[in-house]
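Q: Here's a chain of 245 amino acids. Please give me its 3D structure as tokens.
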Amino acid sequence: MGKRLISQRRGRGTPVYRARSHYFKGEVKHFPQEGVGQVIGLVHCAGHTAPLMNVAYSNGQENLAFAPEHIRVGDSVTSTITAVLSDPATQAPLVLKEGSVLALKDLPEGTLIHNIELRPGDGGKLVRASGTFARVVAKSEGIVRVLLPSRKEKVFHPNCRAAVGVIAGSGRPEKPFLKAGARFWKMKARGKLYPHVCGISMNAVDHPFGGKCSHIKGRPTQSPRNAPPGRKVGKIAPRRTGRKR
């Protein structure tokens, strides 16, 4: 018979497991147009691990972006789509500032970047956590190779955009929660499941491994192939058993 598993309860979308997204400040994406903006404020959002900055552009629009290290209110950032390597007013070479958004093909090798687009125009999908950064490793015709925080190299389209700098808030994982209540409210703000309870510690009505005494399953941990939803828990059934000859 089916059980009231936590994964099933979360899938129903009840308020118990629903993220309080109406408290979030907004979605973080690259500014879809070209222009020069000014940082008008730093924002804390419970839906993001990194601090955000509110940027006001010259055309009157505002945009949320990840705040890099060393950014201050009043600094100017640049959002470009095509190659703009010089200041149109003074014709001086454009200096790469933290928080500016450029295409990967316009960034020199060795530049530290964050919020990288997987496809040109999607607004940024990778390297968005606090304290993380990627590095432009090499550029060749048609591809740009980037070293990700996982130490894995990934190939991107040259027109994919990224923000310059290291995302602020690098010391966040080093601060302890000190008590379970602080972690509970942190996870609740983002709709994450906490605490994690193993199946053998539950009651029999909540999980197939529940009941009996603690830490004794009482049934095989390998789920049957024809098990219905609610019973297919534990180890996945292998394709074959026995010694391969």
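Q: Can you summarize the key feature?
A: Residues 1-18+191-234 form a domain with the Ribosomal protein L2; domain 3 fold (CATH 4.10.950.10).
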